[in-house]
Amino acid sequence: MQQAIQAFLLVPKDSDFTIKNIPFGVASKANGNPFPATIIGDSVINLAKLEALGYFNGPLFSTLGSKVFDSGNLNKFVSLSRPYWKEVRSQIQTLFSCGSQLENNQEALAEIVTPVQDTKNHLPITIGEYTDFYSSKNHAFNMGSIIRGPDNAMQPNWYYLPVGYHGRRSSIVVDGTDIRRPWGQVKAPTAEKPSFTKCKRLDYELEIGAVIGGAPNNLGEPIKVNQAEDRVFGFVILNDWSARDVQVWEYVPLGPFGAKNFASTISPWIVSIEALEPFRIQLPEQDPEPFVYLKEQNHTSFDIRLEVLIGTEKSPELEHFTTSNFKYMYWSVNQQIAHHSITGCNIQPGDLFGSGTISGTTKDGRGCLMEYTWNGKEPLVLKSGEQRLFLEDGDVLEMRGFAGEGENRVGFGRCKGKILPALDEAYFQS
After folding, report:
1. Binding site annotation covers 132?
2. Which of 122, 139, 166, 320 is catalytic?
3. Which of 21, 49, 305, 363 is 20 to 30 Å from the Cα of 249, by its Cα?
């Protein structure tokens, strides 16, 4: 049972940002510099100001000897360890609970708190490296069925290891960033040779991103699976945009490249494991039994409801059409970390791990359009009568995620992007 605490700041009904949450991000005011922040209800809280005014005075934080929240990202804080993260989160909850020393200190609150509508979100961390996995069994089976047929849907290695590939961190953007339709080489199934063209099969992927924190492991020393969770600072929603037609031609033999490197969008607030702990659930038993380096004492995930909504130029009001859940994972985040480091790879604070597309058990739980439309054979029909096989110019795609309800709700906010038209072909001729 969660502790009974109530914020003195206004928290609207069904807010993602109750006092039970306390996510971490980076915000700025108009024409101001970005600052580390958290959010309660519709109030953005400046962590740099809290630190400067001496409110982070717990037994761990007060002995650090240097500022942690004095830069425009969370990397210093992320590089600490879970006891420090928990102490800061607990102090914030205490400071903004009814009856606290801050409640009637209007002078301090004026410095610390800004209405969310007067702020802008930024990437919460300077991302080091980005790795994307493929860990939802429902998604893997559906995609394999589309490509190879249901009898040969699952590749032999899938049940033995968390399949993944290294992506590109420079094109990871924050919620609200427009996404330009990419160009690339495409080869139609009946064509003799490829063509250079605008992507015509633009897709999204519904994922959760794990932000890595803590001290890096030494090169050559893998992270043990039952210690891996201490390396997870928290989670974001992740949309790993995909150019499906480009991917089909380019991915042999080394896997995705340009089809996956043009943009990935994350939600701006990193939600902690502590906030999600009440929603931890057991994952199904794995068969075959994992190798010893992947064998967890507790094979778990979190009951996080994930939603996808779309708006079009004709019908801009967002329409919900997909519901999935982080519980539909086969390989856990801890197993992903253990496998990533088993060769001795040194994982750094600020790295980002994508879960891979998360799909439920029904059609309206499929985590991408390639799945939802069964590779363009079963259109998504919107209330307006419009149909989508893949994303079109002007479409707005929004993802949301939350656990719990009411005053116990813990959410991520939104992860949103609008599709801009591709550059004109003349761009490449000059």
Report:
1. yes
2. 139
3. 363
Strands of 334-427, DSSP E: 352-354, 380-381, 387-388, 396-403, 410-420
139 as an active site residue: the answer is yes
pTM of structure:
0.97
Who contacts 333 (Cβ-Cβ below 8 Å, separation ≥6)? Answer: 210, 228, 229, 232, 301, 353, 355
Does 429 count as an annotated binding residue? no
Report how far apart, in Å, the C-alpha atoms of 159 and of each of 134, 142, 294 are.
11, 15, 12
203 is in an annotated binding site: no
From first to last of its 430 residues, what are the pLDDT tens digits of the chain?
445 789 999 999 999 999 999 999 999 999 899 999 999 999 999 999 999 999 999 999 999 989 999 999 999 999 999 999 999 999 999 999 999 999 999 999 999 999 999 999 999 999 999 999 999 999 999 999 999 999 999 999 999 999 999 999 999 999 999 999 999 999 999 999 999 999 999 999 999 999 999 999 999 999 999 999 999 999 999 999 999 999 999 999 988 899 999 999 999 999 999 999 999 999 999 999 999 999 999 999 999 999 999 999 999 999 999 999 999 999 999 999 999 999 999 999 999 999 999 999 999 999 999 999 999 999 999 999 999 999 999 999 999 999 999 999 999 999 999 999 999 999 999 7
